[in-house]
C-alpha cells in the first residue's frame, strides 16, 4: 500500500535556493512589521485624538484587518487595486497586504497596553507642564511599547508565516514560491515542503528567541 520512495537528496541539493528564498521571506516580514508598527502608532494616536473621523477611520482599519482573512487582504492589494488601475507587483502586493494586517493587530495590542497604564500617569505629566502629546511620547508610549513588545513578537511570527500566501498572487522568490517552483519541476512534494516547513519553524523559533533576549536586555527594570 505504501510504495512512495523518498528522495531527500533532491531537496537537499536545492537547499541553497530555498535559503535564498528564506532571506526574501525575512525581508518581507521585517519590512511589513516596520510599516505596520508605524501605521499602528498612527492609528493609536487617531483613537486618542477625540476626532470622530480619525477615530472612526482607525476603528474601521482595525476591524477589517482583524476580521477578514489575510489572503483576502493580499488579494485586494494585488487584484482589487488593479481594478482601479493601481497595479502592484506580487512582492509589493504581498508587502502591502501583510503590513495592513500587522497594523490592525498591532494597533489593538497597543490599545490593550494603554488600558494597562493608569491615567494618573498622564495627569501627572500634564501637571508638570507637558502637553498631551509630550505626556504620551515620554510617559505613556515607552510603557505601552514595553507591554506590547512580546505580543508584537507573535505578530512578527505570523507575518513570517503569512508570506507563504504570496504564491497565490504569483510571488516566486520567497521561500514558499521557490519551494512551489522546485516541486513543479521535480514532483517531490513531500520532501520539498517538509524541508520548507523545517526552515519556517527554525525562522519562527529564532525570531521568538531573539525577541525574548531583546526584552530581557531592554526591559530589565
What do these coordinates show?
This protein has 221 residues and is an all-alpha fold. 79% of the residues lie in helices and 0% in strands. The chain is built from nine helices and no strands. It has helices at 8-13, 15-48, 52-67, 70-80, 90-115, 119-127, 132-162, 175-186, 189-218. Helix 2 (15-48) crosses helix 9 (189-218). The longest helix is centred in the N-terminal third of the chain and has 34 residues, at 15-48. It is elongated, with a radius of gyration of 21 Å. The model has no long low-confidence stretch (mean pLDDT 90).
Sum up the structure in keywords.
221 residues; mainly alpha
Short description:
This protein is 79% helix and 0% strand. It contains nine helices and no strands.
Q: What's the topology here?
A:
Elements: H1 8-13, H2 15-48, H3 52-67, H4 70-80, H5 90-115, H6 119-127, H7 132-162, H8 175-186, H9 189-218
Helix pairs in contact: 2-3, 2-5, 2-7, 2-8, 2-9, 3-5, 4-5, 5-7, 6-7, 7-9, 8-9
**Largest sheet, described in full?**
none
Query: Can you tell me the overall shape?
Result: elongated
Our measurement of the CA-to-CA distance between the termini, rounded to an integer number of angstroms, reads 60 Å
The share of residues in helices is: over 70%
Report the β-strand fraction as a percent range: under 5%
- The ordered string of helix (H) and strand (E) elements is HHHHHHHHH
Classification by helices and strands: mainly alpha
Oligomer state equals: single chain
Could you give the count of β-strands? Answer: 0
